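Section 5: illustrative case.
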């Protein structure tokens, strides 16, 4: 297990929109489904997520109805209908991170509590009944160089 002093915030995601390994502002995420948010030493995070996502290939999911998440329901999201491949990707990533001692954020929203969704971002959104392609899976650094205003995909699958 990694020393707690080595922990760093990461998230494993599956992107709906095209993405590259370049940083973006925390309020300018490409549309995505979050798989697992966690803290772990950078080397261990890459090891865990690489093992879980190395066989990722693009696949389609169906968008469900909208819901309100977050504090007082202030975050509008489009839920994703149950999808066995997405659930398996979440479980595999969760297990890999946990096996290396990662601290899972919001554990009640993982495993059986996993409610996959795509956050509505201004006028960028998906719509109920739409089939969307999960193009790329990624490990995203939530505070590159210690700056939590930015996000940086540090690894992408399938590899470009």
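Designed sequence:
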């Amino acid at each position: 297990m990694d020393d707690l002093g080595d922990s760093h915030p990461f998230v494993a995601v599956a992107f709906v929109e095209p993405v590259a390994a370049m940083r973006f502002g925390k309020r300018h995420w490409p549309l995505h489904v979050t798989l697992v948010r966690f803290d772990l030493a950078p080397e261990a995070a890459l090891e865990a997520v690489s093992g879980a996502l190395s066989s990722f290939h693009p696949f389609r999911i169906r968008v469900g109805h909208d819901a309100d998440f977050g504090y007082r329901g202030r975050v509008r999201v489009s839920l994703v209908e149950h999808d066995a491949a997405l659930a398996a990707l979440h479980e595999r990533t969760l297990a890999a991170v946990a096996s290396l001692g990662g601290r899972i954020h919001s554990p009640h929203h993982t495993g059986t509590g996993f409610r996959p969704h795509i956050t509505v971002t201004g006028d960028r959104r998906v719509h109920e009944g739409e089939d969307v392609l999960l193009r790329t899976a990624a490990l995203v650094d939530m505070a590159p160089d210690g700056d939590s205003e930015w996000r940086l995909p540090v690894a992408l699958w399938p590899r470009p």
